[in-house]
Amino acid sequence: MPNSLDTSAQEALRARLRFYRELGIGELYQREVDPAEWLLAASEPTQAPPRQAVALQQPPQAATPGPAAPNAPGFVPNIDLQPQESEIAPRKPFPAPPPQAAALPPEQHFAALKLIREEIGDCTRCALAAGRTKIVFGDGDPNAKLMFVGEGPGADEDASGIPFVGRGGQLLNNMIQAMGIKREQVYIANIVKCRPPANRTPEPEEALTCSPFLFQQIDVIRPKVIVALGQTAVTYLTGEKRPLMGWRGTVHPLRGTKLIVTYHPAYLLRDPNQKKHAWADLQIAMRELGLELPSRK
Ligand code: SF4
Prior knowledge:
Blueprint: H1 7-23, H2 35-43, H3 109-120, E1 139-140, E2 146-150, H4 155-160, H5 167-178, E3 187-190, H6 204-221, E4 225-229, H7 231-238, E5 252-254, E6 257-262, H8 265-270, H9 275-289
Parallel strand pairs: 2-3, 2-4, 4-6
Antiparallel strand pairs: 1-3, 5-6
Helix pairs in contact: 3-6
The structure holds iron/sulfur cluster.
Iron/sulfur cluster binds near residues 125, 129, 135, 192 and 194.
């Protein structure tokens, strides 16, 4: 561990400490930590590390829908329910989500995701294809226990092909790190894989056309917990339109995993006062994952 940090490193560390204070985390700083490790994590390239090549296995087999997972014991934190993000208005009833695919052994997850990406190809299945630069498939550990699902790519993501790499992505990275884990340990994807023009909310036709690929990814990865980031994500994950207030603060069963809902990082950037409430949501995820919760001062 270096004994001193240069100016830029110190500023990066201060920014991270400010972020943790905004979340209300105090005890974390009392633990012995390695700032150099934080800084390294904060500055690591967002490009996914090269995956170990694995032989292509059979794609996920279609299976009859399994019984819904029992609702997890609901940890309901004592949190205020806060103002909601703007709602979306689907034009017609949601179709049923595709049946859940059979589970694959962990060593086949990478290859199965690769097959899904190949199936998407140079996709023109919906209108978003016309304005995109790169398809943003997803990023992270194919065997992740925790998955984040956002709405759709923005300009930075469209240019890079990687989800959540702009300002919202940096905030998401901080949120993940506050949970005591690294971005490389989670999987991140969106409802739609191509950038909507001017970052508008995806149209229902676009979301419903693209989301089956996301469901395939979820069925391959089989995370223990999915965190839906914002109204659009939870609406199209569940097929149910409900104010965000009706989703937050408890655990919902989804395709054999546990769904937890919080605000989208872009919303938190617009209204930083909501960060503490997002942190309360993430603590629900941490409890479900068996992660140690930092105590508040
Ligand atoms: S958003 Fe999805 S369905 Fe639409 S063009 Fe892109 S990859 Fe295809």
